[in-house]
Amino acid sequence: MNRRNFLTNSAIAITGAGLVAWLESPNPSAAKANPPDDPGMVKIIQFDDSGKNLGPAQVRRVLKTESEWRQQLTPLQFQVTRQHGTERAFTGDTYDLHDKGLYRCVCCGNALFSSSAKFESGTGWPSFWAPLAKENVRTSVDTSLGESRDEVSCTECDAHLGHVFGDGPQPTGLRYCMNSASLKFVKHG
């Protein structure tokens, strides 16, 4: 068998196997239209501006170019959220804010924290003992300063928000130490 025949026969066999698998699936068009683990989709819990839980939703992950993020964000917001920076302590506009409301991601608007979970940590950054919904934030290991810390990011757009530590108050014992530059505060009316 020469190379051309081998390649032609292989292509026919692969195509045939794929067609058989497609035809044997219970609903071929449904499997293709909505794959269960679509990396472009994420599950979050939606909240209105009053803090009312609107329930779970599958939403498209927010992806933008660096240029698009730079147009949308201030230089500090971009440095913190897109480049994993940290604002200087005691300089953010929400670290000492005591109004009742909701804290949303400055990049995509995802609801992240409630003022009811905010506490005075003395660190100079807004601190919370829990997120509004665990689905709305994700944690990953950050070793950028030569030590291991748990980085907190927005599930919907991957914005860097801050870090979580195990020295917070009850009921969780956690301290979500966030950057004001990563948050947009929405006051309850």
Explain how this protein is built.
- With 189 residues, the protein is of the alpha+beta class.
- The chain contains four helices and eleven strands, in the order ααββααβββββββββ.
- Strands 5-6-10-9-8-7 form a six-stranded antiparallel β-sheet, with no helix packed on it. It has a three-stranded antiparallel β-sheet with strand order 4-3-11, with no helix packed on it.
- Strand 8 and strand 9 (160-165) form a beta hairpin.
- The longest helix has 22 residues, at 3-24.
- The protein starts with a helix and ends with a strand.
Short description:
With 189 residues, this protein is of the alpha+beta class.
What structural class is derived from the secondary structure elements?
alpha+beta
Radius of gyration: 23 Å
Fraction in helix: 10-25%
The percent range for strand residues is 25-35%
Separation, N- and C-terminal Cα atoms:
78 Å
- Catalogue the unreliable spans: 2-36
The major pleated sheet works out as:
6 strands, antiparallel
Return the string of H and E elements. HHEEHHEEEEEEEEE
Strand tally: 11
Shape: globular
Mean pLDDT score? 85
Please tally the helical runs, counting DSSP H or I stretches of 4 or more residues: 4
Strand order of the largest sheet: 5-6-10-9-8-7
Described by its quaternary structure, the protein is single chain
